[in-house]
């Protein structure tokens, strides 16, 4: 897991998403649902080593990134592929639901890779 800043977002997310899907967790320390989501998403990403990466963005510290990606509610999770957000969800979800979401991302990734 990486904590991205406005300065590092290009390399941490945009560039890296050309190699693997990058899951970006937009969160804030004061946000109760964010604190619930954090450990669940970290655990689920850890179960898929090398296949997907997790980057966290503190929206209080990184206002520019929150504005750039239209973050209106937190937690917001966005999956980046080839430099662009392609899917995501808003709100805290239980670990099994996050696992299914990540598996769907990886299945889509595999299908798109096979089609090229």
Contiguous low-pLDDT stretches (5 residues minimum) are: none
Spatial order of the strands in the main sheet? 1-3-2-4-5
Dominant shape: globular
Rounded Rg: 13 Å
The oligomeric state of the chains shown is single chain
Biggest beta sheet summary: 5 strands, mixed
| Total domains | 1
* Number of helices, where a helix is a run of at least 4 consecutive DSSP H or I residues: 4
Could you explain the architecture of this structure?
The chain has 116 residues and is an alpha/beta fold. 42% of the residues lie in helices and 23% in strands. The protein has 4 helices and 5 strands. Strands 1-3-2-4-5 form a 5-stranded mixed β-sheet, sandwiched between helices. A hairpin with a 2-residue loop joins strand 4 and strand 5. The longest helix is centred in the C-terminal third of the chain and has 21 residues, at 95-115. The chain is globular and about 40 Å long. The model has no long low-confidence stretch (mean pLDDT 94).
Tag the structure with descriptive keywords.
4 helices, five-stranded mixed beta sheet, 116 residues, globular, Glutaredoxin, alpha/beta, 42% helix
